[in-house]
Amino acid sequence: MARIKGKALERRRAEEAARKAAAVKAATHRRTAWLAVGSVLVVATAIVLVVIQPPDPWLTFADQGNLHLAALDEPHVGYNSRPPSSGPHMGSLANWGESDIQLPPELYVHNLEDGGVVLAYSCDTACPDLVEGLRQVLVDFEGRDLLLMPYQDVVDPDGVAHRAAAVAWGRVLYLDELDEVSSKQLDSFIRTFEAIDHHVGGGIPLQG
Q1: Which tens digits make up the pLDDT trace of 43-61?
Q2: Alpha-carbon dihedral sign for residues 70, 74, 79, 83
Q3: CA–CA distance, 141 with 150 (Å, rounded to integer)
Q4: Selection from 134, 136, 112, 137 nearest residue 122 by Cα
Q5: How far apart (Å, rounded) are the C-alpha atoms in residues 73 and 70?
Q6: pLDDT over 70 for what percent of the chain?
Q7: First-last CA distance in the chain
Q8: Alpha-carbon distance 42 to 37, whole Å?
Q9: How crowded is residue 55: how many other Cβ atoms within 10 Å of its Cβ?
Q10: Kind of pairing, strands 117-121 and 97-98?
């Protein structure tokens, strides 16, 4: 075969270089296009997940700090949730488990600060099944920091009264029954918020 010389060889090399450059450019364009498609799919998937994921069943309230009081009757700012879920409180704790009497928030809020969950009911004899269901929750979560008690001011921000509530630091789950759905919500609430310490970043640190 005759060898290609001179200008013909230069032309051949130029054509081969052009083909290679075109191939590289095409590959780059394809890669860029696929990356763009992938990014769009990721964003679209995230949007869909946000849209279809239901909101939390509990309400979040602004953190009112953890100022310690010298006495139960010491004046302080009003609480922003009913039952109260954060704010000024005594330096002592209420006993975990079930209380037969309503405890003042100035006492039990410290339990919330220590990572506890308070189960409060305002129906007593009017809803024995609900109260017994809450007692069973104490059994199911034996050894965890839970406090069950009557509390006659379980009212959401819209002014609607409820039969019960689960209270953690800055969170309240309002309840009127313990059916399959609400029982799962309560279980999730306890597993999500129980044992989270809230001493860091505000108020007077707990001594001891």
Answers
A1: 544 444 445 678 999 999 9
A2: positive
A3: 19
A4: 134
A5: 9
A6: 82
A7: 96
A8: 9
A9: 6
A10: unpaired
